[in-house]
Amino acid sequence: MPIAQAQLEAILRDGFPDAQITIEDLAGDGDHYKARIVSEAFKGLPRVRQHQLVYAALKGRMGGELHALALETAAPA
Amino acid sequence: MTETTAADPIHDFIASAVADHPVVLFMKGVPEQPQCGFSAVCVQILDHLGADFVGVNVLQSDELRQGIKAFSDWPTIPQLYVKGEFVGGADIVREMFQSGELKTMLAEQGVLEA
To answer: DSSP assignment, residue B54?
Structure first.
């Protein structure tokens, strides 16, 4: 089951309240997204840990309901 | 990394695969014929950099497909391991390739063909 873009944004917003979040629906099918998340939560963490935080916020949806989410994470400059 | 589970053959298989081979890509399909666009991108990047790597096709067994996700606490395939360390999935590999970081890291680990 695909996830609506607004729902995806709400879930990410929930996990990263301070973040700047940009979501693109890559294929227009609600199943292939690209998200750029800039949050203080990522400060000083290696990229693998940053992405793991995002996957944790998605609570198991990644790889299931959500087939493809290209991730770009960063701490605010 | 996740805790070791005693007597888990899949966990042991993965642990020895990443210990025995300097560069391992867990992927969908085989390097000669990837079956997913994200896996294909990783293969292309490794080939382009001249890294000698072993591809492990997770589609050969569902236990392996689930096992690698638990092993690295990472929900998606592909997954790249260098010298036993989890480097990342497709986005991280691509980002590191584009910044030149991947080449530097592979060279430092001595896994690029001369």
So the answer is: E
How many residue contacts between A and B have a Cβ separation below 8 Å?
30
The domain B9-108 having CATH identifier 3.40.30.10: the answer here is yes
**C-alpha span between A33 and A55 (Å, rounded):** 14
pLDDT at residue B114 in the model:
58
Hey, is the C-beta of A20 within 8 angstroms of any chain B C-beta? no
Mean pLDDT of A18-38: 91
Greatest alpha-carbon pair distance for chain A in Å reads 36
Q: Which residue of A has its CA nearest to B89?
A: A48
The three-class DSSP label of residue A36 is: strand
- Measure Cα distances from B20 to A67, B24, B52 in Å: 31, 9, 13
d(CA A74, CA B80): 21
**Which domains are delineated in chain A?**
5-74 (3.30.300.90)
What's phi and psi for B60, nearest 5 deg?
A: -70, -25
pTM here is 0.87
